[in-house]
Amino acid sequence: MNVAEHDYKAFEQALEPLWVAQNAANGTDMAKENWAFVVRDEAGRVVGGVGGHIKWDWMYIQHLMVAPELRGKGAGRELMQKAEELARSKGVVGIYVKTLAYQAKDFYLSCGFEVNAVIEDMPKGTSHYTLVKRLG
């Protein structure tokens, strides 16, 4: 046996068949459906968006960003409503998101999410949150 450092992308590609086989043997589907919604300004430029994937009957919000001039004007809430509508139409169990204390934690709480986990000092001096919203 030889353990050595390896390129991460090549590592993922080499091990993916093993992960798929292990999960398939346990009845876990590895299929992932990507999704996204964007907000455009009058000129057609993207000024915000939300996106992620659905996997294992859960929706993951990987990215939510709204241009500074649109914050507090309902764009983020409208994006989250679109994401939740999609989640409900797909029959998912719930939605989860990861964020830092100085990012959008309070916004997600106002959208009905609950803190599921907190890692202190990630990055140092702040906290990393996982928030969950169960549907139905």
From TrEMBL:
The keyword Transferase appears for this protein: yes
Entry annotated with the keyword Transferase: yes
InterPro entries: Acyl_CoA_acyltransferase, GNAT_dom, NAT_camello-type
Identification of the protein by name: GNAT family N-acetyltransferase
Highest taxon of source: Bacteria
CDD domains the record matches: NAT_SF
Molecular function via GO: N-acetyltransferase activity
Phylogenetic placement of the source organism: Bacteria, Pseudomonadati, Pseudomonadota, Alphaproteobacteria, Hyphomicrobiales
SUPFAM superfamilies (UniProt xref): Acyl-CoA N-acyltransferases (Nat)
Alphabetical keyword list: Transferase
Residue ranges of every copy of the N-acetyltransferase domain listed in the record: 1-136
